Amino acid sequence: MITAFKNHLNTQFKELTTSPFLLACSGGIDSVVLAHLCSQCNLTFALAHCNFNLRGAASAADAQFVSNLALELGVPVFQTSFDTNAYIKTHKVSIQMGARTLRYDWFDQLIKTYEYQYILTAHHREDAIETMFINLSRGTGIEGLLGIPQKRDYIRRPLISFAKSDLLAFANDNQILWREDSSNASTAYLRNKIRHEVLPLMADLHPTALENMMQTQLHLKESSQLASLYLKQLKKEFCHTIDNEIHITIDLLCATPHVLAVIYGLFSSYGFNDANAVLDLCQRENGKKLVSSSHLLLKDRSTLILTPLLTPSEASCIAEESVSIYPGELGIKDPIQLSISKTKEVSNTPHKKLIFVDEDTIAYPLQLRHPRVGDLFFPNGMKGKKRVSKFLRDEKLNVISKASIWLLTDAKDQIIWVVGYRADRRFASKLNTDKSLCFKIL
């Protein structure tokens, strides 16, 4: 196996032969074999072990075993200990999900602190097939059927193409010891149930079933790459980015062949896995939206607008954000750049980027804030008054753009300017006056 592993490194993981890395080691056969393989290949690495404190004295024994293994191999070792039960109760997640989050958050800290380039995990062929079955049982697309990727970000999985039997044979041939986790034998977990019941059944049905499944995953990977190229071309045709938003032309999207597959390919990575719901949104009235855990998808006339969701704290900050402006100030830099200057040259031509205000009509301090429910103003060039919400709707602003609107108000909370759109006529400067202020967006 050592020859096959060396060849695999040279063809698929050349970066591991020149860069130091961490190796996640539980003490089980998979990670212990990977550590010995890396040692025999003279690679530069350190072990990283997490004690989740879920198995009492056995967890402590695992940690000691990994320390002894590091001494045997002559490599550094990093260890940490978690109160996993407390974490899963606080965050209301499963043991597996909680342990995974704790583990990878710690790995991320190690990578940044000690400047290792990669972290290796010992996932093997059966792990990839088990993941395929898990995703298939829950409903998935091609990406879910691919199982576990060999590489993602700084994670490397050089054993993914090797069978569990290969690892066991290498351990026995080299008289390698490892720790056995008793929970691996329990079929209470879905992955273990697939490992101990489903995969043996598949192997009985056909002697090369597992090898065929791995080959199928390779074919699916190639199909996924072709689909990605097609989606990339489609994005050029009917998607364009404005600031932090992606705008998708609905007519072009709906006219594409295999539209549901295209929609899934375009939007699933943003949390929109129901292609029919997105297609239905395309036919709905203006302003309708779908929300995933991370993004908002808005129907805005002939366009779908995809934008990241604000976190609750970000949304709260925006809702409460305001800036005061006092007499004599020449402008502000945040949250927008605004200059303030006295002037005698007044124009009555409407201009979205600047307005002229009669200084005698305003009471300081002024304030820059977001619109609130019930805000009214007297739009320059119009008769009567108007709700700000109705004005913005008439300007055909979508709900995303409305969230970034600013109002300039005086000490009485009277609106002087819907910034960038329309001034209030009550504060407009008269021509030929020396009491004018110019407010200008920079």
Key terms:
22 strands; elongated; 16 helices; 442 residues; 6-stranded mixed β-sheet; Rossmann fold; alpha+beta; Phenylalanyl-tRNA Synthetase, Chain B, domain 3
What is the topology, as strand order, of the major beta sheet? 3-2-1-4-6-5
- Give the DSSP E fraction (strand runs of 2 or more residues): 15-25%
Helix content: 40-55%
Query: What is the general shape?
Result: elongated
Gross CATH architecture of the largest domain: 3-Layer(aba) Sandwich
Largest sheet: 6 strands, mixed
Radius of gyration, Cα only, in angstroms? 31 Å
The name of the CATH topology of the largest domain is Rossmann fold
> What is the first-to-last residue Cα distance?
66 Å
The CATH fourth-level homologous superfamily of the largest domain: HUPs
CATH class of the largest domain: Alpha Beta
Count of discrete domains? 3
* Average residue-wise pLDDT: 88
Report what the structure shows.
The protein is an alpha+beta fold. The protein folds into three domains: 2-205, Rossmann fold; 243-308, no CATH class; 321-441, Phenylalanyl-trna Synthetase, Chain B, domain 3 (Phenylalanyl-tRNA Synthetase, Chain B, domain 3, 3-Layer(bba) Sandwich). The protein is built from 16 helices and 22 strands. It has helices at residues 2-12, 29-40, 57-73, 84-91, 95-114, 125-138, 142-145, 164-173, 190-205, 209-238, 250-254, 259-267, 275-283, 312-320, 388-394, 399-402, and strands spanning 21-24, 45-51, 77-81, 118-120, 151-152, 155-156, 239-242, 245-249, 289-291, 295-300, 303-308, 322-325, 331-332, 338-343, 354-358, 366-369, 376-377, 386-387, 407-409, 415-418, 422-423, 436-441. The strands form five sheets. It has a six-stranded mixed beta sheet, with helices on both faces. β20 (415-418) and β21 form a beta hairpin. α2 (29-40) packs across α8 (164-173), α4 packs across α5 (95-114) and α6 (125-138) crosses α9. The longest helix is centred in the middle third of the chain and has 30 residues, at 209-238. The protein is elongated. The N and C termini lie far apart (66 Å). Residues 314-319 have low confidence and may be disordered.
